[in-house]
Write a structure and sequence with these properties.
By secondary structure, this protein is of the alpha+beta class. Among the domains are: 88 residues, YNR034W-A-like (Profilin-like), CATH 3.40.1840.10; 70 residues, Signal transduction histidine kinase, dimerisation/phosphotransfer (DHp) domain (Helix Hairpins), CATH 1.10.287.130; 153 residues, 2-Layer Sandwich (Heat Shock Protein 90), CATH 3.30.565.10. The chain has 9 helices and 12 strands. The strands form 3 sheets. The chain has a 5-stranded antiparallel β-sheet with strand order 2-1-5-4-3. A 5-stranded mixed β-sheet has the order 7-9-10-12-11, covered by helices on one side. α8 runs antiparallel to α9.
């Protein structure tokens, strides 16, 4: 039951009980009045008081003294029930309704009235009569019972509200404190179908999202730490090489033209390696902070890679990698950024060059459509990757294979950049072992972009 319904129900119950108690008290009070009626004047007393009230000869003061001898108080009213003169026990306007020219008797809660209309004046004699003590006792008991009943109902209603509304709020508050303290593993269980249960459910969704974000942040921090460690490692070796060969030149170790030329060539090639590493780091940092602007356009992947292969197959042949292409007979169109997608192909082929085992390695590029995606497969005949490391090779500076952090073979950023670019294309990339390492890239076809 919702909190709104609970509050409405308890308030309605309180109202209903109050009405029932009021009606019961009214019924009980009437029953008491019937059981303990006021005893009116006897005939002799009534006649004596009537004679005094109807005697127009004696003065009002004398009448007051005369009726007081019987325990009555004398008062005079006009026909509109306004007091003209009163000697005590004055009646209220709504209590006085005497229009008879002969004396009559009226009984009130604790008063006996004898009155008569004399011209334009109403003459009355009022006597206060106490009921039996049992009446007062029963009346007081009824009042106490009604007050106690009201108190019990209100207490039970408040108890119901407090112990059905506040405990879940206390639990929720504890959960908020835990999350605020960074404990995203603290779980709350919504065991009620009300507004608080819904809030706890929303809290759980928020907590899970925060836990995921915290996990992603931890992973990001871990990768950042690995990148920093990798940068230090990758730059240290070529710098040491340059330092050593430069010192050799300065100390005259290269004492022949041939030796000097070899030293200089080594320094130059090492500087090129460092420049390539710095460029890759620069590209990765731009992608990491999402500052690269992509220019997506519907393109034929077959035509794009055919043009790439025509220029780059001879270049990779000089690096000891034979590139073979296998294209679909029909165009395979996808919404891609040409420059960034070609960078993906280069990074994967460069990776095949770096890890080839034979003097001449082989890489195969295959392009086709599976109906929903444009698929690019690039496979080589290299050593592949151990099965438990396949899911990690797209991470920056992954250290499962020590050779991936060797600056002479690679910076460890190439495949991480591949994943970043493909993710920006809303595509997927995975690695499998198939006689070597195979990279499978899928880009959705007929996508709409904002």
């Amino acid at each position: 039951m919702s909190i709104k319904k609970k509050l409405l129900l308890t308030n309605f119950i309180i109202f209903a009980v109050m009405v029932a108690l009021s009606l019961t008290y009214s019924f009980f009070a009437n029953a008491l009045l019937d059981k303990f009626p006021l005893t009116g004047p006897d005939k002799e007393e009534f006649n004596a008081i009537s004679a005094i009230l109807t005697d127009d000869v004696i003065s009002d003061d004398k009448k007051a003294e005369a009726v007081e001898a019987y325990g009555y108080k004398y008062s005079i009213y006009d026909t509109k029930n306004n007091v003209i003169k009163s000697y005590g026990n004055t009646l209220k306007n709504y209590e006085l309704n005497i229009r008879s020219t002969t004396p009559v008797v009226e009984a009130f809660s604790e008063k006996i009235l004898i009155g008569v209309l004399r011209g334009n004046r109403v003459c009355t004699a009022v006597k206060v009569i106490k009921r039996d003590n049992a009446f007062s006792t029963a009346k007081n008991i009824a009042v106490v019972v009604m007050i106690a009943s009201c108190a019990i109902v209100v207490f039970l209603a408040c108890y119901y509200q407090v112990y059905t509304i506040f405990p879940p709020l206390t639990v929720l508050r504890g959960g908020l404190k835990q999350v605020a303290a960074g404990n995203y593993a603290y779980r709350l269980k919504a065991d009620k179908n009300d507004e608080i249960g819904a809030v706890i459910g929303e809290f759980e969704i928020m907590r899970r999202k925060l836990a995921d974000l915290d996990k992603q942040k931890s992973e990001f921090d871990r990768q950042r730490g690995e990148i920093i460690a990798g940068i230090s490692h990758d730059l240290k070796t070529p710098l040491t090489t340059i330092q050593g060969y430069t010192k050799g030149l300065m100390d005259g170790v290269a004492n022949t033209p041939e030796k000097t030329a070899r030293y200089l060539k080594t320094i130059y090639e090492t500087a090129l390696t460092m420049n390539s590493l710095v460029n890759q780091l620069n590209d990765f940092s731009k992608m990491d902070i999402d500052t690269i602007e992509y220019s997506f356009m519907e393109r034929d992947l077959v035509k794009l890679i055919q043009d790439f292969a025509a220029i780059n197959i001879p270049i990779y042949a000089t690096k000891g990698l034979k590139v073979i292409t296998d294209f679909a007979d029909e165009p395979v169109e996808a919404d891609i950024d040409k420059d960034q997608f070609l960078r993906v192909i280069r990074n994967i082929l460069d990776n095949s060059v770096k890890y080839k085992e034979k003097k001449e390695g082989e890489a195969r590029i295959k392009v086709y459509s599976d109906g929903a995606n444009a698929v690019l497969e690039i496979s080589d005949n290299g050593p592949g990757v151990s099965p438990h490391e396949l899911e990690y090779i797209f991470e920056s500076y992954y250290r499962g294979d020590p050779s991936r952090t060797n600056p002479t073979t690679g910076s460890g950023l190439g495949l991480s950049i591949v994943k970043t670019i493909i993710t920006a294309h809303e595509g997927t990339v995975e690695a499998v072992n198939d006689g070597g390492l195979k990279i499978i890239i899928k880009i959705p076809q007929r996508r709409k972009r904002n």
